[in-house]
């Protein structure tokens, strides 16, 4: 419950900061100027796609926060909780996801200077590392099953499969969008469109990296 309250407080702070940037309390009718002129309010113009992504990330963040709260509550609820052995593969997978996020960061930097080849290399490298992460998660499942922890063996193992599956599905969805962006880059799409697309992909990847680090820390704690 504390995690949920903290998450809502953080979202509220971000929303208040964003609204303050829009100068919603400004009174344009009191601005000095010729009739018919529309004085600027100083509000930042946020692309609809970027705003939509942030709303989506807020929803996903809320979902993951609920998982964290449920995990912690269930862990201390009764004596049937058996700590799950941490598969060594998860450490390697974390490094792969960090490399994937770095590849998208490099692609974003290349997009800002208009370097098409750098965009393609960064996105392809990030996508391959993400695929490696998903393959590594499957191998981690195999390690956990070899230790005798099936999906319904213990509450800790059930949460492990649930958390890794939900995170993996979000990453898989991101790979679909990333693949489309790579295709558009190869087809010679305009740089302005590519900059926005690459920025959205990079933001999503950074979010998934931070989310995974938090979830991995939770699994280590459990």
Task: Annotate the secondary structure layout.
Blueprint lengths: L1 H20 L26 H28 L13 H25 L2 H31 L8 H32 L4 H31 L1
Protein name: Cytochrome-c oxidase
Main location: membrane
GO molecular function, one term: cytochrome-c oxidase activity
Keywords:
mainly alpha, about 220 residues, Four Helix Bundle (Hemerythrin (Met), subunit A), 2 domains
Derived from helix and strand composition plus strand pairing, the structural class reads mainly alpha
Number of helices: 6
Please tell me how large the radius of gyration is. Answer: 22 Å
Could you tell me the CATH topology label of the largest domain.
Four Helix Bundle (Hemerythrin (Met), subunit A)
Low-confidence segments, given as residue ranges, are 15-20, 22-44
- Average pLDDT reading: 82
CATH superfamily of the largest domain: Cytochrome c oxidase, subunit III, four-helix bundle
Q: Please count the beta strands (DSSP E, at least 2 residues each).
A: 0
CATH architecture of the largest domain: Up-down Bundle
Taken as a percent bin, the fraction of beta residues is under 5%
Shape: elongated
Helix % is over 70%
Largest sheet: none
**Overall structural domain count:** 2
CATH structural class of the largest domain: Mainly Alpha
Distance between the termini: 17 Å
What order do the SSEs take from the amino end to the carboxyl end, as H and E? HHHHHH
């Amino acid at each position: 419950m504390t995690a949920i309250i903290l998450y809502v407080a953080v979202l509220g702070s971000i929303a208040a900061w964003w609204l303050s940037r829009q100068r919603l309390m400004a009174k344009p009718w009191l601005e000095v100027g010729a009739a018919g002129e529309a004085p600027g309010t100083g509000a930042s113009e946020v692309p609809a796609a970027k705003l939509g992504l942030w709303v989506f990330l807020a929803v996903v963040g809320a979902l993951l926060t609920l998982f964290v709260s449920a995990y912690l509550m269930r862990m201390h609820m009764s004596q049937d909780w058996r700590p799950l052995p941490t598969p060594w593969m998860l450490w390697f997978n974390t490094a792969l996801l960090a490399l994937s996020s770095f590849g998208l960061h490099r692609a974003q930097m290349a997009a800002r200077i208009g370097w098409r080849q750098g965009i393609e290399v960064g996105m392809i490298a990030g996508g391959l590392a993400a695929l490696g992460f998903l393959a590594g998660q499957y191998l981690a499942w195999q390690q956990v099953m070899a230790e005798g922890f099936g999906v319904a063996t213990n509450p800790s193992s059930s949460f492990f499969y649930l958390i890794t599956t939900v995170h993996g599905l979000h990453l898989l969805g991101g790979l679909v969008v990333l693949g489309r962006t790579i295709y558009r880059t190869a087809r010679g799409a305009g740089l302005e469109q590519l900059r926005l697309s690459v920025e959205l992909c990079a933001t999503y990847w950074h979010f998934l990296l931070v989310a995974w680090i938090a979830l991995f820390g939770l699994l280590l704690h459990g």
